[in-house]
Amino acid sequence: MKVTKYSGELVHYDEQKLINSLRKSGADKAMAETIVKEIESEMYEGISSKKIYKRAYQLLKNISNVHAARYNLRTALLGLGPAGFFFEKFMAKVMQEQNYKTKVSVTLTGKCISHEIDILLLKNDVVSMIECKFHSGQDAKSDVKVPMYILSRFNDLKDKKYDLFSAKRNISKCIIVTNNKFTTDAIQFGECSGLSMLSWDYPQKNGIKELVDRYRVYPITCLTTLTKAEKDQLLILDCITIKDLILYSDYLKTIELSHNRIKNVLKEANQLTN
């Protein structure tokens, strides 16, 4: 049977790939196989991968909100758009979990022009800059023009010293981050040019998905117990991650959730982080 990908390309349906994605969300083997069997009974030639994903999410949510939230992570990252500013804040939180000091949206004057840097990092006395490329569509990829452009910005900044993190420092490293994927050429050019690349699935076994799961730093947009409007309200209040929500649970009173709803949201949040 053929499946239509987000890009419109027709590919062969891969049962094992669907099972693996469900298992990675925390579903056990029996649970994953039951869900796949249900989905396959409803499938037809040319069905979209989006419909398969939505149906899997619904069935998983009927069993476990936490598994559904993990399964929904990539879509949850899209919920940090459309502009991408909240994605930048989220990535700063991911870096803080790895013991980096961070600054978001910093304007610095380079050798030639001024640049607004998405995120600055400090660790072991090394300052790095992160440039984020946010895509609001699931199938979009960052091509080779992205690292070429960002390399020119890094080159304009790296030879000057700036007042950063309470000292005069150079920016000595540049990291490009995207919520989706890089093309092969983009990765090849970036690595050849000394840039670090981070995407949904790159580097292998150390991409955004793995970092989020490893440090349990989930965006609030993955919660199944909140509506989209409620998530948007929390983002505006600078509540970016589930850990933020647990630490400052009064945010839920601010957006006027009932006592029972607050209880359910915090239950899901605590299960995710534990």
From TrEMBL:
A GO term for molecular function: DNA binding
- Which example biological process does GO assign this protein? DNA restriction-modification system
List residues of the ATP-cone domain: 1-82
> What InterPro entries does the record tag this protein with?
ATP-cone_dom (IPR005144), Restrct_endonuc-II-like (IPR011335), Restrct_endonuc_IV_Mrr (IPR007560), tRNA_endonuc-like_dom_sf (IPR011856)
Q: What is this protein called?
A: ATP cone domain-containing protein
One Pfam family this chain carries? ATP-cone
Keywords in alphabetical order, please.
ATP-binding, Nucleotide-binding
